[in-house]
Write a structure and sequence with these properties.
The complex is a heterodimer of chains A (382) and B (73). Chain A has twelve helices and 13 strands. With 382 residues, chain A is of the alpha/beta class. Chain A folds into two domains: 121 residues, Aspartate Aminotransferase, domain 1; 254 residues, Type I PLP-dependent aspartate aminotransferase-like (Major domain) (Aspartate Aminotransferase, domain 2). In chain A, the strands form three sheets. Chain A has a seven-stranded mixed sheet with strand order 2-8-7-6-5-3-4, sandwiched between helices. A four-stranded antiparallel sheet of chain A has the order 9-10-13-12, covered by helices on one side. The longest helix of chain A has 20 residues. Chain B has 73 residues and is α+β, with helices and mostly antiparallel strands. Chain B has a single domain, classed as Alpha-Beta Plaits. Helix content of chain B is 32%, strand content 27%. In chain B, strands 2-3-1-4 form a four-stranded antiparallel sheet, covered by helices on one side. The longest helix of chain B has 13 residues. Chain B is globular. Chain B starts with a strand and ends with a strand. Classes of the chains: A alpha/beta (382), B alpha+beta (73). At the A-B interface, helix 2 of A face helix 1 and strand 2 of B.
Chain lengths: 382, 73
Amino acid sequence: MIYLDNAATSWPKPPEVLKAMTDVLERAGGNPGRSGHRLSIAAARVIYDTREAIASFFGTSDPLRVIFTSNATHAINLALRGILKPGDHVVTSSIEHNAVMRPLRSLEKQGIRLSIVPCASDGSIDVRDLEKAMNSTTRLVIMTHASNVVGTLLPITEIASIAHQAGALLLVDAAQTAGAFPIDVQAAGIDLLAFTGHKELQGPPGIGGLVISDNVDVSQIEPLMRGGTGSRSESEEQPDDLPDKYESGTANLAGIAGLGVGLKWITDRGIGEIRDHLKKLSQTLINGLSALPKVKIYGTLDPERSVAIVSFTVTGKRVSEIGLRLDEEYDVLSRVGLHCAPAAHRTIGSFPEGTVRLAPGAFTTVDDAQEAIQAISKVVRS
Amino acid sequence: MTQYGVVLFHTTSAVMRAEKLLIKEGYSIKLIPTPRQFSSDCGIALRFDWYRRQKVKLALDSAQVEINSINRL
């Protein structure tokens, strides 16, 4: 089987990730911080170590500003709902995932004003259009780091500088880049980074986070949920201490342990090496598809300017039929349709049919990519 | 008999920071359930040798680890 749906979730996971998840429940199964016994303390250590590893991985200094969430969607909702107030202006791009668009559309009904900067049909953005969209009431810019449909990377450092010049914060949706592309929050000027653990960070589903940069005043961010934290238990008010302010309820210990080991797997291998490998896979898929008749490839067609996501359509064939035949006849798993990103498909011109998306991962080989092209070639010709 | 002190914190994350820091600096410490006579802030407290209380406080302060209080057990 050739799994090319890593943009939805990475598979397989490193075996040590699965092992860490069962180990932690056997060895450290207490509720972190709620009790003082050894299993509770052991659990708290695992969580804190992962917090530190994440801070260091994303180039930020304070592990207490790493907030665990269920996934990137949860982190994005926490940031948007925590920061924006009626009357605030927010700017986003036209290639966002519904993890961004749906909370924004809902906030719009509550009095937040939204500007959407149109991207080109290859998913790229002209930062001059972003500059024009900014005004004195712009509180936040939220942009994906890379499109989940065509893989196109947005110039986050430039976007950060434009946001800051207007006095706005930058929230980056790193669902597709965390673990696949180097990210340095401080160097890039990212104020808030939402990530998920189950894609290229090699962790399990159900764990993600929000990294809050040192310069962000957390008194300006309301919690999304309130509840027990194991701290300041005498009070019925939510504590202001980090990370407890934003982390009510029992943590996903197994998920956090798995994510910690996923991060170690990446740092042992080297993020640069993973990025190079993914670029090679991307190039193999683009070259192979370019040689096929009736195939239209979307995006920049340049692995340097994108992450390893390649979307295509075939004239005269439904994407659903292509996906089903690849799965049933050739054991190639892709994802077809709109990929939870109708705005992005409108931008690239593939709405409402969608595309066939090929997303190799760290475990995909060049042979896998070539074999997938052979299979697609047969489906296209028959 | 050893005289112990105990550092109380507001959050588990602060306890974890303190534990790592003090172990790295060679202190003999142990995490224990917070003695009920002191506080209900956080379930875990850090026990240390009382005679080193000034150095412990200095170490935690200079690393900006937020503490609730330091008490004699």
